[in-house]
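Might you be able to check the backbone structure tokens below? Thank you kindly.
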Amino acid sequence: MSCPLPVSPMQPPVIHVVGLSNSGKTTLIERLIPRLRERGVRVGTLKHAHDGFDLDLRGKDSWRHAQAGAEAVALISPARSAWLLRSERELSPAEVIEHFGDRIDLVLVEGFKREAELRLQLEPASDFRLLCELQRCRIGVFPLDLTEAEIDQLVVFCTEALRRSGRAAASVAPAREAACSHDAPGLVGSEEFAGNAR
């Protein structure tokens, strides 16, 4: 079953944020998103959950719908929407990203390092701070230790990837957010969405 979001004819560029556990991948993404938004880049993110996950809350209506056997559950609020779908296998990043549609200019993926062509590679405690090439930036310090100038270099790396892809970044405006989550065998989605379902 596919996610009912528009499919873009040209997928946005994807940059993988990779590194060992506790190297600061999430922190780096948190630092980059606001800076990219300042430049008018609409950012999507994708996280690889190696051990599976369950964001629905036991006892909430959406959880009860899933327990009754629904193959898909949608939650809709004035500001956000979420589709919670069953998946019989782990989807690839490309399969998920195609459903971001035209809402997103650039995707930051935490994990899936084997599929990474463009990457921000965290190697804290190295003998260098930041080394950027065309396809990769190696980061030798923890993300919280990066200077503003170094964060700017990473933002340029990301926006250059966007420019090379041929996609123009749209200006940022308040918009509704949509999520499409997949897992096997259970239904999953945002805890916020599930927690607000009555």
